[in-house]
Amino acid sequence: xxxxxxxxxxxxxxxxxxxxxxxxxxxxxxxxxxxxxxxxxxxxxxxxxxxxxxxxxxxxxxxxxxxxxxxxxxxxxxxxxxxxxxxxxxxxxxxxxxxxxxxxxxxxxxxxxxxxxxxxxxxxxxxxxxxxxxxxxxxxxxxxxxxxxxxxxxxxxxxxxxxxxxxxxxxxxxxxxxxxxxxxxxxxxxxxxxxxxxxxxxxxxxxxxxxxxxxxxxxxxxxxxxxxxxxxxxxxxxxxxxxxxxxxxxxxxxxxxxxxxxxxxxxxxxxxxxxxxxxxxxxxxxxxxxxxxxxxxxxxxxxxxxxxxxxxxx
Length: 314
Prior knowledge:
Elements: E1 20-29, H1 46-58, E2 66-68, E3 77-88, H2 89-94, H3 103-114, E4 119-126, E5 139-147, E6 162-163, H4 170-177, E7 182-185, E8 199-208, E9 219-225, H5 232-244, H6 252-259, E10 274-280, H7 287-304
Parallel strand pairs: 3-10, 5-6
Antiparallel strand pairs: 1-3, 1-4, 2-3, 5-9, 5-10, 7-8, 8-9
Helix pairs in contact: 1-3, 4-5
């Protein structure tokens, strides 16, 4: 006879499923073949391709949702993009299979085997407590590259460098950029989006013409801010080009800023010259506090300055 269970005995406790694990992903991509970061119906996007690959590697019922530090527009490139994804702990451990290597290494290798060549995950690590790829970030740094010298025009870099037919006065462009640095309402340089703010802290905006290195001879903008609203960087570059060509005085970009109203004079340059180079974060023990502060500030600004532009790249 089979042994019967005593109904008076307490049930045997099953081991708890490990809590969700947050993974940090450091990635790079050539934006040429993508319709931007965010998922869009029937379009190839970075988020869509990455989430599908994660779903395949982890064997989830559906693609896991990824949160990114900065959503890039169609055609914009990234060398230093950061994202995070939350995965059930048990699922992560099971995805190791028979490998004895750390599970993070296993996942990174498998991702590299199925992702297309224009999207690379350089690192996959367990995120420290409090990490949020978007809200924990201190700043985002972009570079915009322009070639205005036919002798230096390189067909191999045509997808990453803007070709400009007229010679540019870099000193005038640099002088015009200085007054824009600081905390301002950049409504004149942002495409409006309902329910979001155009107030940003522009931490750095400079123009240079390097004499050596991979950018030698190019006209290069470096732009860093706590965050960017839609088309902000490319609008700043467009205003600078008007100064560099001599069509506008060096004080014109600051006049546009003061107007706090998007006008017909603002030109949004092509996306392919723009590169997200770096997203910076505070020390691990400050990550959670930074995320709380960022969320609170964004919410307060949205209430005080409707409507405005959303969080996106240039």
